[in-house]
Amino acid sequence: MRFSGLRVLKEGLTGNRGWGPHWRDPAPKPAYDIVIIGGGGHGLATAFYLAKEHGLRNVAVLEKGYLGGGNVGRNTTIVRANYFLPGNSEFYSHSLKLWEGLEQELNYNVMHSQRGIINLFHSDGQRDAAARRGNAMINQGDDAELLDRDGVRRLLPYLDYDQGRFPIYGGLYHRRGGTARHDAVAWGFARGASDRGVDLIQNCEVTGIDVEGGQVTGVQTSRGAIRARKVAIVTAGRSGQVAAMAGMRLPIESHILQAFVTEGLKPVLDNVVTFGMGHFYISQSDKGGLVFGGDLDMYPSYAQRGNLPTAEHVMEAGMALMPMIGKARVLRSWGGIMDMTPDGSPIIDRTDIGGLYLDCGWCYGGFKAVPGSGYALAHLLATDRPHDSATGFRLDRFRDGVGLMDEEGTGAQHNTH
Amino acid sequence: MRLTCPLCGERDLREFTYRGAALTRPEGETWGDDWHDYIHLRDNPAGENREYWAHSTGCAAVLLVTRDTRTHEVLGSALAKGGGA
Predict the structure, then answer these.
(1) pLDDT tens digit string along A361-400?
(2) Which overall architecture, per CATH, does domain B2-79 show?
(3) Which residues of B touch A252 (CB under 8 A)?
(4) Tell me: the pLDDT tens digits for A167-195?
(5) Is CATH 3.30.1360.30 the classification given to domain A5-78+182-251+343-416?
(6) What beta strand segments (E) does A276-395 contain?
(7) What is the DSSP string of A228-281?
(8) What is the ipTM of this complex?
(9) Does A399 sit within 8 Å of B36, measured CB to CB?
(10) Does residue B57 sit at the A interface (CB-CB below 8 Å)?
């Protein structure tokens, strides 16, 4: 089933009776070449690129709940490539390029909207840092513009420019950044993978990872044993529990990150705006809700909900930045479980166990990485070599100290990134 | 979530700062797997977790808190060894 304008017109005129399920619902087979644990954005993207780029179709994605029911359905949908450090920079640059061709590639409307991201700065020192970051982005081949105070004011006239603590000096403008419809990304990759022969198996919880003589041989699941030559753990948010099934401890501590959405409003906010000093960022969804969030609650949690002090802090920061949002009513809030690593950067790598691979540690930046991560992990699974865009995401960098990518320079404590 | 400081009583979460998992610091002073383990690797349980919290805007004591990471239920708190104000 392909989507097209003609098809939408035809279905609209014939009662929309011609649409079918977007993916098959197969029973698990006894064995696969590759089993991917986790049917979220990253797992589904990995399956899609395995089939499309490498012709590997004897692949299963095992999901304990429903497809896209984890963090890919619980984030704030920002897509950007404004990283500074080598290792991260080329990866997110590659991922953004994949985003830019994604809708055509998937024949699926993921509502990717390059509405631009503005990172505000509030001092001369921060301006220098923003210029340096912008130059790094340009050197990577991406886009960045340094806006002065008036430049920001032309785009965002309703901000409070003279607030006492953090007066706005300007912003770093990344025009190709923006947002996408999070669920559609998961669904589009799922459909593309399923159409190419990948089995997407829902309500199938992995309960054990079988290892014999240092080599992975399959998994135990709530729907029976499944043999596999290669197994990839792609379960950010629950990476530690799944890796523990193979006897591994990870450099990850799980933290809660809250997000909030207001009632639907008329278009008021054209871009994504980040107010790092206040721990606040905001965009407006296509439904009209203001989607915003802040920093971690800062303690380990799997509760998928946070506490009020952080909610209060985020609201205060929002009021300080753009007082007009005080008139909007918050509809709901939620929390996602973040795989926080000691340097704030992710892991895509082999493990000490033959045939067992890891894709985890996305901190709170996993959504924008979905295509890039799937592409890189598929390359690693197919060729046993890291993709050029993801050579920095080694698991062992913490052990040997080589190539740590601590973007904010905040040290090795997991929750400080 | 509220935490109980043994010195000050039950207080609002805002007064406390999470200071990391309660782990035993290695004896040696040279880098090795023991330090890698201590600084980076975590059991990261979904359930009962032992962690340090500082009563940072209160008496400054460091507490050893036992807490369920699935529910945020606080199961116990005591002064950490050497953590008194």
Answers:
(1) 999 999 999 999 999 999 999 999 999 999 999 999 999 9
(2) 2-Layer Sandwich (3.30)
(3) 42, 44
(4) 999 999 999 999 999 999 999 999 999 99
(5) no
(6) 280-284, 289-300, 330-340, 347-350, 356-360
(7) EEEEEE--TTSHHHHHHTTT--BS-EEEEEEEEEEEE-SS---SEEEEGGGTEE
(8) 0.94
(9) yes
(10) no
